[in-house]
């Protein structure tokens, strides 16, 4: 592959990621991707295959980015005091979603049955990451730091639902205007709420760090 070809592939994937995140897989056509990239459909198909193949590439890259960030965060969790480390883990994931808003958007479209004929991604990508977080938190529960009656799976999912929802949709202020991750005050308020909610849900000792 020449440098020019590599540049076109990178552009196509970037544009496709933006469109899939905004419109969903079902709402995006190869023609839209080609036009947004300033290319023709034949060039797009030549470099990345059809829409399905391109979508799989986009989701694979999104997963790799999320996995790398999560592995780094979990590595810190293993070497720190559990309560502040758990809060740091929440912060790390929230920051990742703020910095990469297209990734929660891609997954939220799937929650709404987007790309319903592509069914393997949750098993292939999501389940291992959820299992890794659960495994990292279990020692804290065994040590009595986390309430033993807490359902860790549902707690993890609750955090994901909240963070993805805020990253994608934000909240409405008193005047009905949408405030999201680009609003520092709204982000700070959401972060504080998220920490307090998880601290109480997990039954963590002491005050919220």
Automatic annotation (TrEMBL):
Matching entries from PROSITE patterns are given as: HTH_TETR_1, HTH_TETR_2
DNA-binding region, residues: 29-48
On the tree of life, the source organism's domain of life is Bacteria
The alphabetical list of record keywords is: DNA-binding
InterPro entries documented for this protein: DNA-bd_HTH_TetR-type_CS, Homeodomain-like_sf, HTH-type_TetR-like_transc_reg, HTH_TetR, Tet_transcr_reg_TetR-rel_C_sf
Q: Which residue numbers delimit the HTH tetR-type domain?
A: 6-66
SUPFAM superfamilies associated with the record: Homeodomain-like, Tetracyclin repressor-like, C-terminal domain
Pfam families listed in its UniProt record:
TetR_N (PF00440)
The protein's name: TetR/AcrR family transcriptional regulator
Give the source lineage, highest ranks first: Bacteria, Bacillati, Actinomycetota, Actinomycetes, Streptosporangiales
